[in-house]
Each structure stands twice: as C-alpha cells, then as structure tokens.
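Bench notes, bay 3.
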Amino acid sequence: MKILIIHGPNLNLLEKRDKYIYGGTSLEGINRLLKQRAKELGMNVEIFQSNHEGEIIDKLQETLENEVSGVVINPGAFTHYSIAIRDAVEILKVPVIEVHLSNIYSREDFRSKSVIAPLCRGQISGFGISSYILALEALKLLDRNIDRR
C-alpha cells in the first residue's frame, strides 16, 4: 500500500513559525514519524513538499499513472483558495484526506473555509502531528474495507 503525502507552502519552515499554532517539530521530524508509523502499518509513503501550486498539481496528477492507494494532503494556505488544486483532487480515483496541524476553524475567519475538503474522503485538523498519523490510520482502515461509504 503506497500513500502519497503532500505538504504545501511554508511547511518547510515549521520550526520557524508560531510554535503555539504549529508545534515545535520540523518538517523533517514529522516526515520521520510518518515513515515510522507507515512502516508499522505496512505502508510505503512518498513524501513531497512544495511552495508552488503547479508543482503540487503535477504531483497529484502523477497519481493517475502511479500505483498509489491514497493521498494525505496539507495544502497550507492553498486550502482556502486554490481551485486548481481542488480540480486536481477531484480527478483522483483514490481516497484523499486533507490534514492541518492547527484547528483551522478556531483561527482567522478566512481560514475556516476549505475549497478542497468537500472533494476529500475526510479532513483532520487541530491535532498537530497526530493529524497526519490519524490520516494514515484512516487510509489503512479504508483499505481494509471497514468503511467504504
């Protein structure tokens, strides 16, 4: 089971951002934890980060040609306005889970709207690094046919 994990803009600078909102773990630290948990779940993960909308779209489109069982995406600020990423997610034939480290609904008003979430299997936000871990576990459960609604 191969899972694509996409980190959007500014996530490469997590350790320099507001620790109260984003925690104190670097992106490299998050990626290490994701690889470890994926291995425990019998998954293989491909991890990608970009600050560029087009690169994220290209990576999502690659899943149409590659053997990918699911996608975990933290679109960062693109969450709130990228119709182009939304359209790329809409085309995918695998479950997509949107994640956020912070609870986007408890922050500024403009952050409480995701244009991408309605096309995802689900959204997990507000649990810090565990948002990503929970997304991996959800994809594993979906793969086991526990909940295929």
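Next record in the batch:
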Amino acid sequence: MARIAGVNIPTQKRVIIGLRYIYGLGSMKAREICLKAGIPDHRRVKDLTDEEVVKIREYIDADYKVEGDLRREISMNIKRLTDLGCYRGLRHRKKLPVRGQRTHTNARTRKGKAVAIAGKKK
C-alpha cells in the first residue's frame, strides 16, 4: 500500500484515480503529476516501484499544498473573514450560503433540517 501525503492510496485502483484520495488533488492535477513522474495512465498503484512512489511524493510536496496544510489555510481564510466582520464572514458565522444563493427556499444543505414553528397553524 502506497502512503503519500499521509493518505493510504488504494492498491487496486489506477494511479490517476488513487491520487484523488488525497485532499486537494483532483483529476487534472493527478494526471499532471503522473505525466511529470513519467507514469502511464493504465498503471495500477500495486505495480508502482518504490522509486516511482518517492518521485510522486516529492513532486506533490514540492509543488502542491495538500491535506493538512490546505485544510489549515482554508480554515484560516474563513477565520480571517469572520474576524473582519465583512459580509462573507457574517454569512459564514451564521452558517448561511456565502455566495449569493437564495435562502427563502432551498439552502437546506447549509442551513440544516427544517424546524417546524409551534403555534403556526390556525
């Protein structure tokens, strides 16, 4: 089992798919990493040599911010907005949609389960 950036990559999957298990790496970045490391698209993680795994690990460490560092940066950005008291920060603080979506209906993912108001019915 390959361990890259603190994540166990599944051995049965192709390398491009396995790299997506790392937070911060999507399909395009995974494809780019494989291209730079010289690994063909059809290779499985279990078929990688130790040198290839080290090459992938070094390339990710040098060029990308992933896992804990990325999560920390995102949370610090949100904390900065809330401390400033700007509009986006207030929306984060109230756990409402930040990017201008409507909240009269919808927005259930962000707001949570609907709560019935007692005494509303006539």
